[in-house]
Amino acid sequence: MKYFPLIIFTLTFLFTDQIIAQPNYPENANEAKIISLDIKNFIEAFDALSSNTDSIQVLQKLYFDNASIGMTEYIRRFNLNSESLTKAIQKHPNKYLKIKEFYSQISAFKTNYIEEMKVYKRILPKTLFPPTYLIVGDYSGIANGSKFGQLVTIERATDNLEKLYNIIIHELTHFQQALSMGIDKYISTYGKKDNMLDLILREGGAEFITYKLIRQNKNQFKRLKDYEKNEAELWEKFKIDLKKQDKSFWLTIFSKEDNKEYPMFLGYPLGYKIVAAYYNQAENKNKAIDEILNITDASEFLKKSNYKVN
After folding, report:
1. Tens digit of pLDDT for each residue in 208-240?
2. Which residues pair with 153 in a beta bridge?
3. DSSP 3-state assignment of 144?
4. In whole angstroms, what separates CA 293 from the centre of its chain?
5. Widest CA span of the chain, in angstroms?
6. Residue 213: exposed, middle, or buried by beta-carbon count in 10 A (0-12, 13-18, 19+)?
């Protein structure tokens, strides 16, 4: 799961409810869908707000009561409600004002998304395409996967569409990881003892496929640059933390101050580097991609990657 634009991640899994073994989603990239109904409903509600109206009531009636199935799932998971959204709008009015402009270009956004998905299909031929639900949230910046598809809040990213595409593709890759290794096995990793390396490689694999293979824009992966600035020092720290299974510095601290002034979530670029090393030395790149999606022995994968710090 991803929070943005700071790109903060947590470790909850995208399929928390019952799900059939093989979801009935299209294999054709042309059928990949962006669901923007909730943005349309939000704009209607936002336009109805005034100093003389009860904002909570208006948002509830025009936005929440008309929620898509994706937004309904998001509400259930993250407790989005009319009160929290009202407070967010009051605190960040300019961000919410930009949503209408974003929506005015939604057709172009969807067309570009299809082109992105065609590239995705060429790189990962077994891909299934669940829909992506674009949701207006309470400025928490959450992106998450679900059995219904990707659930992505947009209010913090409408002025950075490249970042929004990156986030959607990252979440889509988690979906492919789950299908590749089997949903039960994917879920079980989150409750597994000593799972620090598993999680780092899972997130790093999603970042590698997103930034390197699909979008070919790793220059936008700022956290990778942050990691590479102090790669040797951080690698030594990682080896110590791995023995203790102390994943906080790498995956769970949400404050730079608590992270000794280092950027947060450096486990993601570390995982990226390990996965990249594995991929780059592989003779059969297609086989390597399948193996990246299906990492069931994290220690063995790290060993085979021959990742080294110069």
Report:
1. 999 999 999 988 899 999 999 999 999 999 999
2. 135
3. strand
4. 15
5. 66
6. buried
